[in-house]
Amino acid sequence: MQVSRLKINQFRNLIDLDLEFSPRFNFIYGPNGSGKSSLLEAIHFLSLGRSFRSALASRAIHYEASQFNLFSVVLGEAFTTTLGLKKTRQGKTKIKIGNNTESIGELAKLLPTQFVNPNSYHLLSGGPKARRQFIDWGVFHVEPHFFSVWQQFQQTLKQRNATLQRQMLADQIKVWNCKLIELSVEITRMREKYLQQLTPLITELISELVDLKELKIDFYQGWDKQFNLEDVLNRSFFRDSSQGYTQYGPQRADLLIKLRGNPVHEVLSRGEQKLLAYALQLAQGLLLKKITNKSCIYLFDDLFAELDAVKQGYLLALLNRLESQVFVTVIEGNLIKVLNNSVNRKTFQVENGEILEECLE
């Protein structure tokens, strides 16, 4: 998948732009605050219907406008379509794929996109929620019915928790247990299947970026594998009831990444953590291509931060091998010279919300 053309209207400081991109590398450079990240954010909105900067979409609307509009031409393996997205200050969203009005879920399915920035190492050092989201991004794109099962699970979990908070008897809680267990087992099955395919690719990619031969990746499903979830829920009823929420289940799952028995964020340098986080996200793109024949779009904000020239070269060579469309922001244009001129690429200079394509030398 690739965004071949993008029209932006009243999005942050990007007032009225019409851009055509390379199917491979697109470098965007300019000073801080010029609008580089806003361009990535616009693409992110088109693929996920939300910002990576703020939970409030209205903040992305230019301060003098009442709405923003995004329009793109998207090329697939065997088709071309258009995407349109409009957000208003009143919170209304309109999404069109071709001539049809669609949901955010359909938008996400069509345009698999990964956002990567210098804080991506928080995937390793932060809480388990980010790692669950990492797993579920991948499962969502390769298992057609995952999203439906996940939605049903969230609703059932919400109902069980509400029942716990009302201090109901164990027999009344069991009404929700049956459905919750059925959905939990299915979600866990899909997650485990996905990670079994992903882990070898992570190991392969990380070996090209940093030496971590003793790296071990395990999946915690959200409860002890030695016991079935029904027994776990029954045993934890009184504690669940006293705390008002369900302590065990796929909502507590985690990806455990360790080096020589220690969590990686405790033993790796910041630069090594970044490279490992990059490898995790790049591996997802490889697996997506392998299973669905869809290419992932990568949005790299300040890709080269805290990486030396050698690591920059390794990372770009790896990205080139993925055959994905890549958008990379950098502050200085000369950093782009790390990439060989033979690679299909375009370079854009950004200044005060204006974006101009540069001619290759």
Automatic annotation (TrEMBL):
Record-linked PROSITE patterns: RECF_1
Keywords: ATP-binding, Cytoplasm, DNA damage, DNA repair, DNA replication, DNA-binding, Nucleotide-binding, SOS response
Keyword DNA damage: yes
Function: The RecF protein is involved in DNA metabolism; it is required for DNA replication and normal SOS inducibility. RecF binds preferentially to single-stranded, linear DNA. It also seems to bind ATP.
Protein family: Belongs to the RecF family.
GO cellular component term of the entry, any: cytoplasm
Species for this entry: Candidatus Rickettsiella viridis
Gene3D superfamilies: P-loop containing nucleotide triphosphate hydrolases, RecF/RecN/SMC, N-terminal domain
Principal cellular location given in the protein's record: cytoplasm
Occurrences of domain RecF/RecN/SMC N-terminal (ranges): 3-343
One record GO biological process: double-strand break repair
UniProt name for this protein: DNA replication and repair protein RecF
